[in-house]
Every structure is written in C-alpha cells, then in structure tokens.
Amino acid sequence: MNPLEYIAFMILRTLRKLHLARLIRIGKKHNFTDYFKNFEKVQAVRGIFGEKTEEILGNLKVEFMGLFGYMGVDNSDGHLLVNARYLDTGDKIDIYLDIIHELCHIKQYMEGKDLFDGRYEYVERPTEIEAYCYTVKEARRLGLNDQRIIEYLKTEWMSQSDLEKLANYVGIKFETA
Ligand SMILES: [Zn+2]
Question: What are the domain boundaries of the chain?
Fold first, then answer.
C-alpha cells in the first residue's frame, strides 16, 4: 500500500468504528485510541511526541461534535474536538492532515502555550504557523503538490489575503490566477 492509500484506509477504519458505535453521544469524551487506530505508528505523530507517543495518545480524549467546524483542541483540558460529520464526508487526506495539525496543538497545549492568543490574527499566530508548517511538511512527504496543499489550507472562513499569507508562512509559493 502506498502512504496515501494507507492513510485513507486508517481514516475509513475510524469511520467504520464510528458507524458501529451508532449512538455517539455529543459532548461525551471518548478514548482517542478507541477510534483512531495505529496513529502511534505514524512517523509524523512520533515526530511530535517522540518516546511519549503511546502514553500521550493513550491518555488523549476525543469529543465528537455535531454541527459546525472541523477539528480543534478544547482549551480547558486539552482534549480533541472532532466534527463527526466532517469525519464522515470530508476528504480522507484532509482529515489525516487535520489530525496531525491538531496533535501539534495538543503538544503545544501540554507545553503551556496559549492556543487562542488573542494578540494575533489566526494566520499570524505562532502556534498555528508551527502546526501548519509541520502539517505541510507531512503533506509534501506524502507527495501532495503545492496546488493541492493550498486547496487543503483553504477554508470558507479564510480570506484570500489570509490564505496567501499562510501559504507564504509555510513556504508555498502562491500563484495568483
Ligand atoms: Zn490550528
């Protein structure tokens, strides 16, 4: 299996598990490793947590949200928030990259960093730039080209100039049409 196929497989397995669970109670915290299998073996994840990977993922909780958004980290105790519908309908590679991105935030949270530092705009915030840089490095390793990575970075709530800024920060040349 090539890396992209493997990732799609990992995410699909997560989805199957979600469907099996049928009644996922919104707001209840679950064990990350009950849903997201084999992430402790992913090199990009080990690159974040090192030897503590198993321990940290073993303790990580995940909460499935129902309505809006993609993924995030809860600022009160550092658990992962995942939109169950996004998991169901989103692009598998995007989902994988989002998980890597959020795990970077989990590490930052554990280091005591403020993930929602209001002194910065979203695309200027050091914790975001660090998480995006790491995620883009993984995207490149998987063979995604710059255009595909820009597609990944783009969200409906990000302005064009913010997108260009972010692309610039993570080292992607932005070609304007
Ligand atoms: Zn982020």
Answer: 3-169
Return the DSSP state at 15.
H
**Would the pLDDT of 23 be above 70?**
no
Distance in Å, CA 175 to ligand 1 centroid: 24
- How far is the centre of ligand 1, averaged over its atoms, from the C-alpha of 80 (Å)? 12
| Whole-number Cα distances in Å, 173 to 123, 124, 164 | 16, 17, 9
Cα 72 to middle of ligand 1, angstroms: 7
pLDDT tens digit string along 48-107? 999 999 999 999 999 988 767 889 999 899 999 998 888 888 999 999 999 999 999 999
Asked if 107 and 115 count as a contact pair (C-beta separation under 8 A), the reply is no
Distance, in Å, from the CA atom of 42 to the CA atom of 3, rounded to the nearest integer, reads 10
Cβ contact 97:133 at 8 Å: no
Helix (H) or strand (E) holding 73: strand 71-73
d(CA 12, CA 8): 6
